[in-house]
Design a protein that fits this description.
By secondary structure, the protein is α/β, with parallel strands linked by helices. About 45% of the residues lie in helices and about 10% in strands. The protein is built from twelve helices and eight strands. α2 packs parallel to α3.
């Protein structure tokens, strides 16, 4: 199991001199642990959250794609926020995913997240219905108006079917509670355009972009791979903040084989993250249907890449 060397526990000076983002820099898109019987493993969630924070994560994102939000209930989502808050206290920010394809339901989840103790919410575009940009903007504004929590918009058109267009983001950035973006658009030019013209905290949502987006003014990352190597990914940002861009690039490149196997080898990141966590004795448990666990060959490949980073 990866050991934390202590360097990620301190808050480094930023290379750019900019203030720390509201939610932190090194955020993990945390898996949701389940028991072998498929129930929510709240004690396991606390243990995993404590480990992630101890090894460099200054923010945790619960009930996102990696957290299997489509197959967890509203009550499970709220319980997860409560127990993780108990575990990490004020040592890390907690965001929780609330996005659905129903605006009314999403408002309800935002209010429940606020009651449960979240610091913010991750809000994905409504999926399946594919609203046009004016309807998408209205959806986001209605939710932002409904609670006091700051919002990170989640742009992942490959899953939702709907892009949050750059011009829409520029307008939404004017809302006082829309403060961040998790970017999985794979449109690096658009990301730079929005970073340059707004104060939105832009987080890489694709681990291969962690350093690249940070280098052009991004806030950090919201990472699936951080579930298994949190200190290794945090070290990339720390090196860049210290002005050692060559070391930052080296560390990012070292992590590339594991990133590729976890995120681009045909299996969802939830499946690969849980496979590795189970192998090294950390809380994870099974995935919920319709997902299936990784096969032995895939697990062996993941383990080899993981051990190469130790």
């Amino acid at each position: 199991m990866e050991l934390h060397d202590g360097s990620a526990e301190t808050t480094p000076m930023t290379y750019s001199g900019s203030p720390a983002p509201l939610f932190g820099r090194a955020l993990c898109a945390m898996i949701t642990p389940f028991t072998e019987g498929g129930a929510l493993d709240l004690a396991g969630a606390q243990r995993l959250a404590e480990r992630l924070v101890a090894e460099g994560c200054d923010g945790l994102v619960l009930s996102g794609t990696t957290g299997e939000s489509p197959t967890t209930s509203d009550a499970e989502k709220a319980d997860l926020v409560r127990v993780v808050r108990e575990a990490v206290g004020s040592r890390a920010s907690i965001l929780t995913g609330i996005g659905t394809f129903d605006t009314r339901h999403t408002v309800e989840l935002a209010l429940e997240a606020e009651k449960a103790g979240a610091d913010g919410v991750l809000l994905v575009s409504p999926y399946y219905s594919k609203p046009p940009q004016d309807a998408l903007e209205a959806h986001f504004r209605q939710i932002a108006d409904a609670s006091g929590l700051p919002i990170a918009l989640y742009d992942i058109p490959g899953r939702t079917g709907t892009r949050i267009e750059p011009d829409t983001l520029l307008r939404l950035a004017e809302h006082p509670r829309i403060v961040a973006v998790k970017d999985c658009s794979y449109d690096f030019l658009a990301a730079q355009k929005v970073i340059a013209r707004t104060e939105l905290a832009y987080y890489a949502g694709c681990d291969e972009h962690n350093l690249a987006l940070y280098a052009v003014g991004g806030a950090g990352y919201i990472s699936t791979v951080a579930n298994v190597v949190p200190a290794r990914l945090r070290a990339v940002l720390d090196a860049f903040d210290a002005g050692d861009t060559a070391e930052a690039a080296r560390l990012q490149q070292q992590a590339t084989p594991l990133i590729e196997l976890m995120m681009s080898a045909g299996l969802p990141g939830t499946v690969t993250a849980k496979a590795l966590l189970n192998e090294v004795g950390l809380p994870a448990g099974p995935v919920r249907a319709p997902l299936l666990p990784a096969g032995r060959e895939a697990v062996d490949g993941l383990l080899a890449a993981y051990r190469a980073l130790r």
